[in-house]
Amino acid sequence: MHGETATLSHVIFGWDPLLVSAILFVATYAVIVSEKINRAIVAGLGAGLMITLGVLNQEQAIAGVDFNTLGLLTGMMVIVAITRRCGVFQFVAVWSAKKVEARPWGILLMLSLVTAVLSALLDNVTTVLLIAPVTLLITEELKVNPYPYLFSEIFASNIGGTATLIGDPPNIMIGSAVGMSFNDFLLNTAPITPLIMLVTLLVIYFVWGRSLETSDEARQRVMQFRERDAITDVRLLKQSLLVLSLVIIGFVFAHPLHLEPATIAMFGAGLLLLLNNIGENAEDQTEDVHHSFAEVEWVTIFFFVGLFIVVSGIEHAGLLQMLGDWVIGLTGGDMAVTAIAILWVSAVASAVVDNIPFVATMIPMIESMAPTFGGAENLMPIWWSLALGACLGGNGSLIGASANLIVAGFAERAGHRIGFLSFMMTAFPLMLLSIAIATVYVYLRYL
User: Fold this and answer.
1) Cβ atoms within 10 A of the Cβ of 352, count?
2) Of the candidates 252, 284, 226, which has an alpha carbon nearest to the alpha carbon of residue 98?
3) Confidence category of residue 6, pLDDT binned at 50, 70, 90
4) Which residue in 73, 127, 160, 292 could disulfide with 116, CB within 3.0 to 4.6 Å?
């Protein structure tokens, strides 16, 4: 597919599409990493140059955008924006803080575990949309630095999301392509995630946890809060919980219902907008809808649009295919070496390139390896390596996974900007540690 597509490129002056796309890709990521220009602007310009210089035409660029991911993000952002008005997140914040007597490390631990569990049962993007605002509220009350909390929740969301079919977009893509069920992921990827989560929390404790402190006055103020007082609109709370429940049920039964996550999320957003505006006049409805749409993290959405097109450019030019062929050549057709290599390459690549387009490229490449390993049924160790590598690898950088960018977006809007390099300096080694644990698991379980 890639070679065929590459021949359709018409790069200006007859330049090599592979070289042009590689230069644009590296330049785009370099400017994003420098943090001198907003990442949505950089990604948009990179995408524009991919098309203008002829690496892609407009149809190919649009085809490269994963609208399922964008629809899921946008729909859940609208649902969360409406739901938060009833005060339910403040309720969760107060309840969580009081359960651990408002101790800073206890709150970090509890919110991280809640994030991991919800990421496995919902999806990690939805989970951080719910948890990040709560975290910022709690840390503001306790006057503590929110960074360790948000860092831990990013890791928890991706580790928890690794556990199930619906937890992370790469799992959804792999499960759909190979025909894996919810239970398949529960029996194969889920067992290793508690150990990885435990090791991750231990590292976070020694890096930040020991120094997290707050005053007794701040803790007392939190302990005197009444959870019930946080609920400001009981009717909206009921409507929101109803829609959220239906959306969760939809995610769980998406496969037998033949529905994509974006359809479920956008339908849920539309339903909640309808319920929230029943009985209102036209002017109030317009104002409410406008306000709800304004709450969407459009910087993140447009960043993803540009990023998908930039990655699509190097994919069409054949650069990602060359990387895949290089890995296969190195392994020499050995199952154990191939599975471990794909685990590590997927992890490192997913930390640099978004794991969704990367997994989309890897799936047909792995399928083509079936004859080498005696049939498609013998490829399962490689599929589990890809799932573990792509999901856990998303923790390696701020752009490694959708959930990371969502958390960064909330933090930036609250005045606590998360730096790309400062995050990566701690996150990347910790991600490699999780991959080392996964390597032992894959080797002992499948090889």
Assistant:
1) 17
2) 226
3) very low
4) 160
